[in-house]
Amino acid sequence: MLRHDQRQPLDLRPIRFEKHIAPHAQGSVLVSFGNTRVICSAMIDEGVPRWMKEQNVSGGWITAEYSMLPYSTLTRKQRDSSRGKPDGRGTEIQRLIGRSLRAVVDLEKLGPRTMWVDCDVLQADGGTRTAAITGAAVAVELAGRWLLSQGKVASLPVKNRVAAVSVGKVDGRVVVDLDYFEDKDAAVDMNVVMTDALDFVEVQGSGEEHVFSNADLMTMLDAARHGIQALLQKQAECLAD
After folding, report:
1. Which of 21, 222, 229, 232 could form a disulfide with 30 if both were Cys (CB 3.0 to 4.6 A apart)?
2. Could you please report the per-residue DSSP string of 76-127?
3. CA–CA separation, 96 and 106 (whole Å)
4. For residue 164, which of 79, 224, 95, 80 has the smallest C-alpha distance?
5. pTM, whole model, 2 decimals?
6. Residue 74, Cα to own-chain centre: how many angstroms?
């Protein structure tokens, strides 16, 4: 039986990348997972955080920020600045994005500079964090190529590409790349981040008033691997253009 949007269980939504969406950033892309759309940009500052200097840590640093724009959801989402405090979910997601990128960038090759990655959700229909990671990886590689073209690094500081996808159990079936309609009713919800060597960076999974077996976990991880391989191919096509 097909899913509500006529996809097979292992099918991704239509995936699109539009490069150079932010002209003042060294790398940028608008990534779309179906109706989820995220602008990801990478900007480079010469210099590193003070804690690196104080602790004599060599190399550079990558940090990420994530936000959902007020009009990204059906009802207006209040900005953190007007709420007076950061959104806990957003803070957790931007830390995940930062970890995912630092896993695949050679910080020594990056040199004593900071790469700021911003992920701004234009439209949210499920899977914003996985779209943000997948798009941010493209923006970071574009910024790394810019550094190389300017003679600021001797070689591309990107060791691997990284992509992420959601996977879950909906109506008793394992499905990949959940939209909001599926996500809100999923018995199990998981986000998987992997490199192009198909090594895991992070796995986040939980049952929603349900439990899942070891067999379920293995099935979901295999499904996520299938989805991530397709995303990596889309990244490669974008970056080869």
Report:
1. 21
2. PPPPHHHHTS--HHHHHHHHHHHHHHHTTB-HHHH-SEEEEEEEEEEE-SS-
3. 18
4. 224
5. 0.95
6. 22
For 170-207, the pLDDT digits (tens) are: 999 999 999 999 999 999 999 999 999 999 999 999 99
Alpha-carbon distance of 69 to 80, in angstroms, equals 10
Of the options 3.30.230.70, 3.30.70.100, 2.30.30.100, 1.10.357.10, the CATH number for the domain spanning 15-240: 3.30.230.70
40: which strand partners? 29, 119
Show the CA angle centred on residue 240, arms to residues 24 and 37, nearest 5°.
Answer: 55
- Residue-wise pLDDT for 50-99, tens only, equals 999 999 999 999 999 999 998 898 889 888 767 766 788 889 999 999 99
- Going from N- to C-terminal start, the domains of the chain cover 15-240
